[in-house]
Design goal:
The protein is mainly alpha-helical. Helices cover about 45% and strands about 10% of the residues. It has 3 helices and 2 strands; from the N terminus they run αααββ. A two-stranded antiparallel ribbon has the order 1-2. The longest helix has 16 residues. The radius of gyration is 17 Å and the shape is elongated. The two termini are about 30 Å apart.
């Protein structure tokens, strides 16, 4: 099945098999925050968590949630996020 999808993808020139998670992020028209601001806030949150300042980290998470960003913790190397549609 994957080979068939790959063949169709090559014919249509969509490059679907090369897409990563960041490529699949959708931005709703109602979003009030851009990707640079999300990444900035995630950096602040990461530092707060490293300093064990969990109230600050929670406040940043809440700010992102209010702006429509869902944070998916769990990856030790980085956080995944998406705009909540």
């Amino acid at each position: 099945r994957l080979a068939a999808v790959g063949a169709i993808d090559r014919v249509l020139g969509l490059d679907l098999l090369t897409l990563g998670r960041a490529d699949l992020r959708a931005r709703p028209a109602s979003a009030t925050i851009d990707e640079a601001e999300i990444e900035r806030l995630l950096g602040l949150r990461e530092r707060a968590r490293a300093d064990k300042n969990f109230p600050a980290a929670d406040a940043i998470r809440d700010e992102l949630t209010a702006a429509g960003v869902e944070i998916m913790d769990g990856n030790a190397l980085c956080w995944e996020w998406r705009l909540d549609l």
